[in-house]
Design a protein that fits this description.
The chain is built from 18 helices and 20 strands. It is an alpha/beta fold and about 525 residues long.
Amino acid sequence: MSNKYFITTAIPYVNANPHLGHALELVQGDALARYQHNLGKEVWFLNGTDENALKNVQSAEKAGEEVRPFVDRYAETFRKLSKTLHISNDDFIRTTEERHVKGAQKLWQACAAAGDIYKKKYKGLYCVGCETFYTEKDLLNGLCPEHKTKPEEIEEENYFFKLAKYQKEIYKLIKSDELKIIPSSKKNELLSFIDQGLEDFSISRSRERAKDWGIPVPGDDSQIIYVWFDALSNYINAIGYGTDEARFKAWWQENLNTAHVIGKGITRFHAIYWPGMLLSAGLALPKTIYVHGYLTIDGEKISKSLGNVIDPFEVVKKYGVDPVRYFLLREIPSGEDGDFSYKKLEDRYQADLANGLGNLVQRVLTLIENGLLGEVNYLSNLEDLAVQEAIVKSRKKYDESFEDFRLHEALGAIFDLVGFANSYVNEHKPWELVKIHPVKSSEAGAPKAQFDGASPEHFLKVMINLVRLNLEIALWLKPFLPETADKILESFGFTGKDLDHLDHQKLVIKKGAGLFPRLG
């Protein structure tokens, strides 16, 4: 079994600043990447920007700017978003980079060598927003189903890819889960679409219509490679296709764990067009495609073209990075649409983070500080069976939810354990087991705990179990709320990667300010 795990997010156009919908995909991909890393996999997590699209050119023209500096500026903003959200990506690829150009042209040549590229005149309805042609039956009331705009009628001579040639093979790959589409509802939609018959699709644009922007077709400078054929190849170009064949072989051709995280609006491109191109070129296919829904406001997709954009930088500035990550990963069902509002975010912040997790951590640290003078010598033989069973039950749900791309339910499993831990505190009332003997001015040293009506061992047992629960919660939180997880582990004086060797460890508590301060 390969120990490598290669995961990518889609690459957004750079015709405007990122919105909160982009943040959703980034944190979903990051949670999957961090989870695999915690399992011991060697992870390569890729994101980047799609810079060769006609809509980028049109936006630059509208802004009265040259295309190159315009694209550079927005690409840097997207790179900054990854840093702001604490995304653990190992690479960031821009499709204007030389490594990408070489890879895209090599893929073209490989498909051409297979006899799958030909030239013909074509007339069709083109949506610049989607960078794709539509037929009349694809439209809703004559408008693009994604952007609600009327497509432009285009007629010109382009190169085409023989997608229909691979219809049966692509269908079989998806049907058998050799190419696994998650959630299964998206798999069924794709199979239904393929059943209607695949058509060859245009993979180039005239240099004139592309406004002299993009990657030239090998051997024909009058044509520019169509943005989707160009853009999709970024995934393999970043790991060496066309530039480092040894690395490409290890991370793609021989890797059993390759995954794309994409929005539902571009599923066909990734699950049908992309596999067709790879089959033609004789290359391996991705193993899994995770399809997420849209972030909506009042039921409408967040979109630059619709004008209902929320700035992720401002939301993070106001609430903090981990609360924003938490909302996006907990409130939004991973494979479905989910609605954003500031009220929903603040409700989650207060109920789940401040009153739930934050309160649990702070009260346990305080009890250890007061009753055990800030130190715990961990003894596994004091663990309650009920606590062990709760951990096993939640962990099973946690792992299964990751496997099925139900990240919101994986987080739910963690907060089931938070709820159990808070109930455990309330049930055992450890504050009644210990009272602090105040230090007189004539006495030296720290205050001493007094155990009225209970043995110190009873108090210790309760705290051992609460420590265990807190450490489990923190370690499971790492894929979702990495900063918060590290703060909890540091507060409990824990520096390990797992709890396998916790027995007889001495944990020195470092209680600080609360994890989630009151919202102003």
